[in-house]
Amino acid sequence: MKGQFEQWVARLQISEAGQKIIEKVRSSEPSRRVGGGSKNVSGRYPSRKMGVTIQFESHRVELPIIYQLEHDEDVLEFYDQPPQIKLDYQASNGRRLGVLHTPDLFVIRTNSAGWEECKTEQDLKKLAEKNPNRYFYSGEDNQWHCPPGEFYANQFGLYYRIHSDREINWVLQRNLQFLEDYYRAESLAVEEAIAQSLLAIVSSQPGITLAELLNQSTGAKSDDIYILIAQEQIYIDLNATPLAEPERCLIFRDEQTASAYRLMVEQPSVNLTAISPVVNIVTGTTVSWDGKGLNIIHVGETEVILGAENNQLIELKKAIFENLVRQGKITSLQTPEKTAISTESWQRFYQASPEDQAEALERYKTIEPYLNGHPPENETVPARTIRHWKAKYLTALQKYGCGYIGLLSHRSVKGNRQRKLPEDTLAIMEKFILEDYETLKQKRMLEVYGALVRACEQSSVIAPSYKAFTKEVKRRTGYEQTKKRQGHRAAYQHESFYWELSKLIGI
Hints:
By secondary structure, the chain is an alpha+beta fold. Helix content is about 40%, strand content about 15%. Helix 17 crosses helix 18.
């Protein structure tokens, strides 16, 4: 730990004076014991991150902030009631004051460290009115400030920050409290087969609600799902909706897929005026130029070709065309409409691999400023590449009702489609499907998969994932499989239909 601290100090180039302050905070006991009042409830929070209890004297501000610090990956360490610091400032009557002050917390973050004070918005307004030189609200950053605290901290390359109850996300607070027991119990674990089953459901149905997952997950308990959420093996935006309302909570395999899903559903508005005022520069768009109606029949990398009524073709450099549009000399004759997302769009979204989603999100992040008409000054991506991605986005927006789909490459479905599992894995998987699943005992897939995994471990064979196993079972779905599991009558509906031609006497 000491070595890590020294590396952190060296990386941030903390001054010697600042380092001594931080070392004193880390090695000292809390400078005072907190107590409650008529309006506050004090207490101690057992911090898993710090391995000690953290004092709080306000359950309305200080405790919620401690919850956030506990679960914030950017926070490395935090300490309550650090050693006193001296604040020098001018009172409202003009007198110079030197006040010894004990901040609520000292926080060490990935790229900074400093003191943090927690107060209600109501108290801050009263304090600012009483002494504006110590507390004031800035409309520029919408934050409360303590100038003497910030001045003291800046001397050592540290910060001083004020938290008010206005900035607390109470949905997140509810969720953190809901999952508290799951965060603390390190011994809690989910059986591998059940975890794989849940992950398979979430992966195949991005955006499934927590209520649906609780109902679909045969063999899994609600605790199993909450453990996977707490361990971040499946993702839910804890800032968005409370877990106590499962029908509103959307679950994904990871945060990346959740971001992609939001782009699909929310359909970020595209400022077509910024790209080309009123005109969507894609094939098929009807435009007006100098009082004449023209159709865009080709959009290339450098040229745009327009078609007139008399079959005349007009070739323009793309830069010239865009300039005429910006000047308002070329306008659209079409009214842009927000189209519904097509079924094909959702199919393409579900087929995309995590790598495809990551690439598409990165592409969207790059072209988003251009779509909104605010291109960055120092762009590192080649202009030709940006034009290509932008064109793919706008084309997909028109074709599918969702531009994000155009940024998916679907590399996972390209190239060699040969099966990649080892032969011995395929053989043992087929054996269990034939002899354990496709029988009149009608065992559940999860149960058979668990036995398969154990058999693979005993035979030192690589076990297939639950997703691969279920895919193989579904590949065999049909008359024969239903007949083996449920009998002839149940399988009848899956039997192939044949026309029978017979010769009728007398006809």
